[in-house]
Amino acid sequence: GHNNLNAKLVLLGDMGAGKSSLVLRFVKGQFLEFQESTIGAAFFSQTLAVNDATVKFEIWDTAGQERYHSLAPMYYRGAAAAIIVYDITSTDSFSRAKKWVQELQKQGNPNIIIALAGNKADLEDKRKVTAEEARAYAEENGLFFMETSAKTAVNVNDIFYEIAKRLPRA
Ligand code: GDP
Ligand code: MG
């Protein structure tokens, strides 16, 4: 049968990791070299058809700075899915991503689907975090993992598609 689902999705991760750029790529098919940094959070929606269902993502793109941390629960509370984004050229951003995973697993919806996105995969020559390390971490923590590039569009639709496939059907 046909299902129409609404799914609240939150993007979390260090400032500059590429959260807004991933959303802009997914929602508008665009990329900006000088993406403005997000203040507070921004809302987008996008619909995706997956097998037997149409999933309407209600996307909260958060700011990532520490001074906005106390706002994060407003965005992840009740979320069906989260994309935790780090930048493959920054070990700090990978550490920050792990902190977000811990927080979500402690405070978030227990059934939340968590995707770990190693973004800026186009910057191979500046890579600091290996795919193997991130994949192992993801497996240990029950997340699914993809390397993405908002710049080249690699794996951007795919990560949303993989989330859509994992959402519980009504
Ligand atoms: P946010 O703070 O997590 O929302 O990060 P932004 O989306 O604002 O991106 C921060 C900077 O990284 C911007 O200058 C983007 O153009 C750049 N950026 C984002 N994604 C990519 C990517 O996949 N590849 C490259 N090379 N740059 C990216
Ligand atoms: Mg942003």
From TrEMBL:
Gene3D superfamilies: P-loop containing nucleotide triphosphate hydrolases
Organism encoding this protein: Nyssa sinensis
Protein name: Ras-related protein RHN1
Transmembrane segments: none
Family (UniProt): Belongs to the small GTPase superfamily. Rab family.
Top-level taxonomic group: Eukaryota
UniProt-listed CDD domains: Rab5_related
Keywords (A to Z) from UniProt: GTP-binding, Lipoprotein, Membrane, Nucleotide-binding, Prenylation, Protein transport, Transport
A single GO molecular function term of this UniProt record: GTPase activity
Topology class, membrane: Lipid-anchor
GO cellular component, one term: endomembrane system
PANTHER family registered for this protein in UniProt: PTHR47978
BP GO annotations: protein transport; vacuolar transport
The protein's role, per its UniProt record: Protein transport. Probably involved in vesicular traffic.
